Fold Response regulator containing a CheY-like receiver domain and an HD-GYP domain.
Amino acid sequence: MMLKNKLLIRQLKKAKITTLEDITEENFEKLLSLIDRSYTNYDDDRNLYESVSEIASSEFQALNQDLKEKVTELKKINNTIKDSIEYASLMQQAILPSLDTLDTFCQDNFVCWIPKDIVGGDIYLINTLDKDSVLIMVIDGAGHGVSGGFLTMLVKAIEEQIIAKIKDNTLAPSPALILEYFNHNLKMMLHQDQESKSNSGFDGGILYYNKKTHLCRYAGAKTPLYIINDNELKIIKSDRKSVGFIRTDCNQKYTEYDIKIKKDTKLYLTTDGMSDQEGENNTRYGIERFKNFILENQTVTLSEQYVQLKKDFMNFKGDFEQSDDITIMGLSFK
């Protein structure tokens, strides 16, 4: 109604009628003609607008329906992928060793394994070689998620070859030699000797322990070993060369360390996932915080340390997203 009134006012101005006294037979006929033309145009415009609106509404509904169908399709694809990854997670957890094995060789221990995603690139491996000796590995594979998970499967496959060779006496249970075997065979599997684009590998540490002789040996690839003896913290920094990756030489050698085990010796083998965790004010959890934690809690059982360490980590992380996969082992051998 308001629009029609505005149209009438405009036509009155065109007919030069502002008061009743301005009305003459001539300009009144002009006014009627203008009004008739204006309202005809208005009806045409209104019909056109309604027609266009109806078409636009129809197209919008069709577009909206198409969008809904695509969203439904994407949800199905996402659920399929998620189901596959969750199944892969079950497979990855299935290849993790039973922690009961550690109880045979340790008076106290803990294992903290927290993947960043459903599957992860970290893995730990424990193998009894005979009634007196055990081989323990902590592996930090390149990447996390699906790519990291695939790499852990390759690592597991090579590890089974290694254990078979040790048991048939064709490979010594030497952590340094085992790292060399991993490096050579992983590079061969990924064709890294032939200009492969598969630039993958891992950092990690390997411990050998014989509970009868108390012989303990360690070798690491960019993975330190933390040792607490008599209130003193010692760190074996290990070699600065990873296992695999194009940049690592196929015949890379690794350093082996003998470790003196006392009654209250505690060993910690960890990937860099916890130390690299981001927190408030652009801070990181850091190695120093971890070192301080194990020093301050050295008289506490490893089982209790596990609870306190996870609590300390979660308090630091707060609402921040987890940065990387996390694996930490605390060991006190018999």
Summary: The radius of gyration is 37 Å.
